[in-house]
Amino acid sequence: MTTAETFARYVLPTYGRYPLVPVRGEGVRVWDDAGKSYLDFCMGIAVCSLGHCHPRLVKAIQEQAGTLMHVSNLFQIPQQAELARVIVEDFVKLPGKVFFSNSGAEANDGLIKTARRFGHAKRQACGAARYEVLTFSQSFHGRTLGSMAATGQTKIQEGFDPLLPGFRYLPFNDLAALEAAVRPETVAILLEPVQGEGGVNLATPEFVRGIAALCKRRDLLLFFDEVQAGFGRLGEPMAWRALAPEVVPDGISWAKGMGGGFPIGAFWVSDRTIDADGKTLTSLMNPGSHGSTYGGNPLGCAASLAVLGTISGDDLPANARNQEARIRAAVSTWNSPALAELRGLGLLLGFVLNSEKIPASEGKTPAQVVVAHLMDQGMLTVPAGPHAVRWLPPLNVTDAEVDEALAIMRRTLDALAPCS
Ligand code: PLP
Q: Which of 19, 61, 329, 332 is at 20 to 30 A from 3, Cα to Cα?
């Protein structure tokens, strides 16, 4: 049986998979089972932030795997303590504490649970707990029952009702609508600084600042979902700081790029006080309130320490900014009728297609059409919504690799929609 046949027989068909069978990776390249190489600008959807099989990450995993792979969270785990210190001191740079999960959806569930605890501590005037979290249309927060309910896309929720109650979806970048939506049971606002899955939609700095002011006025928690955009991808160590650096959040979730391919996620909660008695927000998540068997185990934390150490040691956020500028400069000279816009920030970029020039075809969206052509040309990308082709190269991508990708992209767009 081929891999595809084995999949079809034994794996739940929750994904529409490409026929490609990747078997090896190095840096920005992967090879398939026939030996064909691909320039990988999908990188496991923003996961392999150092490229494939980065030597420092491989060494860290090998050494830790041979020393101590896993112990229970009932014990002190030095790698977990150190990783939390690095995240707080070197990345968030605000007082707070971290919980480690295995994925982004779980990290968001943790933020939602923190909001519920806060809603019990700081109640409505009538005495009932607050519980409602406001999120945004086209957002994506994950596939667990909690994070799916937080996600503002009906296609993700179809057939899974009744959903976890306590969420409402507001139009993205519309501060007036958000301000009008807050009601007594509202307790938090959860925002992706850039909506990745939703089409590479950037929150405006005014929107982020307006939300922060609204949260302060109405005693709401401000949460950022940085699962896709965090840890350098937007050109700053933390994603929200690329938009509104002065804003102070109450919670942040991450996963994907923080492990470089090793499955690990986390959420951070601010140590700020929430009442006149000096009770802190972090104290609400007390012993017994939350847990994870695997989250924060020595192996995962050793991997993430290697990744985050490389991101800050090699100043990869600066490379993300520099490569974005090079990409924008090149694309601005193309005059491609296929391209409506280049959206995004740092190395989370969306090439938005002109659907009159590249229409949907054979059940494929315009973005899927272009992604399939790029794959034929030896380049991996991923759609973001129906109209955007997403580039998510590793944060250490070089000038030569970006130039190679630009050449393939331009050739593909010109072939699909020639200049008239
Ligand atoms: N939040 C955002 C912004 C994401 O992009 C994703 C995944 O794409 C998630 C949450 C869910 O993360 P995971 O698939 O690790 O559960």
A: 61
129 and 15 housed in the same domain? no
Q: How far apart are CA 274 and CA 280, in angstroms?
A: 6
Q: What angle do CA 359, 361, 362 make, to 5 degrees?
A: 170
Sign, CA torsion 72/76/77/83: positive
| Domain membership of residue 81 as a residue range | 58-313
Helices (H) and strands (E) in the chain, counts: 13, 17
Burial degree of 376 (CB within 10 A; 0-12, 13-18, 19+): exposed
- Ligand 1 atom with the shortest distance to the CA of 143: 16
Condensed to tens digits (0 to 9), the pLDDT of residues 111-160 reads 999 999 999 999 999 999 999 999 999 999 999 999 999 999 999 999 99
pLDDT at 420: 65
Check if 151 has its Cβ closer than 6 Å to any atom of ligand 1: no
Which residue of 49, 145, 195, 228 sits with most ligand 1 atoms within 8 Å of its CB, as the best mutation to test the pocket?
A: 228
| DSSP states of 193-228 | SEETTTTSEEPPHHHHHHHHHHHHHHT-EEEEE-TT
Out of 260, 292, 313, pick the residue that ends a domain: 313
Residues 366 and 224 occupy one common structural domain: no
Closest residue by CA, ligand 1 atom 5: 228
Global pTM value: 0.98
> Which ligand 1 atom is nearest residue 139's CA?
3
Q: How many CB atoms within 10 Å of residue 53?
A: 15
Q: What amino acid is encoded at 39 in this protein?
A: L
* Average pLDDT for 13-27: 96
